[in-house]
Structure formats: C-alpha cells, structure tokens
Please model this.
Amino acid sequence: MMMHATLSALFLGALLAVSLPAAAVDLTISCGTVGREREFCEQATSAWAKETGHHVTLATPPQRTNERFFQYLFDLGQGDSRIDVYQIDIIWTGLLAKHLVDLKQYISQTDIEQNFPAIVANNTVDGRLVGMPWFTDVGLMYYRKDLLEKYGLSVPQDWSELIDIALYIQTQERKAGQSEMWGYVFQGAAYEGLSCNALEWIAAYDGGTVVDKEGAITIDNPQANMAIARAASWVNTVAPPQVTSFNEEDARQMFQSGNAVFMRNWPYAWAMLNAKDSPVAAKVGALPLPRGGVKGISASVLGGWQLAVSKYSKNPEVAADLVRYLTSEAVQKQRAIGGAYPPTIMRLYEDPEILAAVPFLATMRPAMESAVARPVPQTGTDYMAVTTYFWDAVHNVLQGQGTAASNLKALEDQLRHVKFRGGW
Ligand code: GLC
Model:
C-alpha cells in the first residue's frame, strides 16, 4: 500500500513536471533610449519572452549616460529589486560591480570568450564578470559625400583641414540659399558626451588623457590648452551656438535634416542617417576622426554597453538567461544590420551581411584596438568627479566663460583636491 502510494506520487510528480511549464517570471530591463535603442530592445526581449513564456517590462532611464548612472547608483544603493537587468556603460563596471552578479555562474565560458578579450577584461572586476558585452562604440566623423563632391573637395585628414572645409561649404551653401547650413556639429552639452569629444580633441594633439596611466594629473599642458581653445573658436563660426547644449541625438537630428556638413557621433547614427525616410540617406560617409595636425593622431574614444544582472533581482538565473539571449550572436547580428550597433563578438566582423549594411565596421576593428580609453582604471571611484570637473571646464571655455588656459589651470587644481581626498 505504502509502496503504491509512493509510486503514484512519483508518477504524479513526473506528470506535473512534463505538463506544467516552469513558473513564468516577470522581469524588468533598463535598456538605452538613444536613437532606436528602445525599439531594438523591445523587439529582442519580446522574442525571448515568447520563446520562454516569461514576461519582460522595459524601464525608461534618462538619455544622458551620467544622469542614468546616478539614478542606477541611487536605486542599487538602496537594494532596489525593481530592475533585474541593467544596460551599463563601459565606464561603470568598476563603479557598480558590488551591486551586480557574477555572470560566469550562468553564462558558458564559450559564450563569454567569443567577445573581445579587452571588453571582457574591462567587465571583470575582482575575477567576477559583472557585465556581458553587448555592443561597442568609437567616435566617428560623419560627412556629406555629396557636398564634398559638389565642391570638388576631398575628405579632410586633420582637424584644421576639416574646419576649413566645413567653413567653406557652410559659406557657399548659405550663399546658395541654404541659410540654416552649419559646418560641424558635435556633443557640446555639459555631460559625459562632451568629455568624450574633448578627450578626442586633446588626445589627437598629443595632449594626454586628463589623468595619465600612472594616475598623474596632466590636463594643464600646452597641447590640451590649444586643442580646447580651438574647439571654442568653432562655436558660432562653423558650429551652431546651440551646440553647447547638444547631446548625441541633437547633433544627429541637425545633421540628418541636412543642415550640417560634418558630425562627430557614434556608429548608431549610421543606421538612422541611412533610413528610408532620412533626407541624407546614401549621401553620408563615415570615417575615423581626423588627426591633430601633421604629427598628430586620429583619436577616437572607446565607448560601449554591457548587460548586467542586479544582485537584488528576485530571479537572477532567469535574468541571466535574458542577458545570454540578448548578447548572443543572432541578436548582435540583427542589431548590427538594422541599427549599426557594433558587435562585441569578434567573428561578426567577418560577416558579409553585416559588412554590407555597415561598411565602416570592416575598418573599425583596428580603430577599436587603438581607441582612447577614458581615465577610468586609474581614477577608480573618483572617475565621475573627474569627468564632471572636466566637462564643466571645457563647457565654460566653449561658452566663452574664461580662457582655455584659466579653465584648465583651475581644473588641474580641482582634480588635485579630488585626488588628495580620494587618493587614487
Ligand atoms: C556612448 C558611449 C558611451 C559614452 C556615451 C557618452 O553611449 O557608448 O560609452 O559614455 O556615449 O555620451
């Protein structure tokens, strides 16, 4: 009798296991909102939800990366469990690590190792993989091929040539009735995007990276001064006065409407500029950024985004499965073709369909390898203070509040205080 009851219980258990799906879980993901990021995130998360029977809600964080960072830090600091999966910037892995799970518990070594080792290394904090690479980024120079051709000009090689051409075409186009035309747009608002642009100007002229690899503060030097003073001279001559409040999307919208000759932006802009309804579709080229003078280099800042699972998630295992899916080869491929998000999986750089959709990816691999990193490892938890003082100082100069020399000198002093207090 006893035996019989046990067998029936076993049978019932097996039946339940076969016929009942694992309980459906509700997850929340906070992915980006720049350009078409949200749309892409929605598509891929619903495909995963359909496949697994789980449910995913999208949270909407602020567009600017630094605002997003402080919101995340605040929520995670309180152990908030509302968001399971976070899209995190390449510069935050160390800053947020203690709130994130080690994805190595859930994602196979083979899946991890197909990504660029430098990104995996960046995302590994004290031996824990706190973010799975999702897409990478480098600064690019977009230009109007049709306008360069119209004026018989070739693609500029260095920053002064770029500004000369920008001003020339702007002037000619305005004479021809295009009264809204500007030569150059970039990210000039006081936020992380300006830190990236300014670092590119300075590094191109061999003016360093604000804080060097050993942690010494280097920002107050003649090349950096010159690079920032030059950039300030662009405002209201080749760049619109409102560029000092532009983020990525403001610059992209102006360029896409046909009112700028050159634009600095990240790869995602490519897909939007070439969309069917874009006024500049098929009229745009994209190149590495120009050199800083004859002896300078082409310096592009390295960006990029990872997916991370919160330690406070109630369903870390299911959340990690969503991360595994979103960062998989198939999803990275769709996002590269449809949205120009540069993959982090190395072999996708040889994929003919991706290269046909986003031709500059063929040359992006070397550009990524030589890209300029922001001074994150050397400043540690002080990075947000360093970058905030940096973009504020540069923003002052762009707005004509003090010279480059006086602002960079003051910046050097501010950074000394931060270093003294934080002791990086
Ligand atoms: C891009 C980059 C990111 C950077 C941000 C600045 O999203 O991928 O790394 O911090 O731009 O605006």
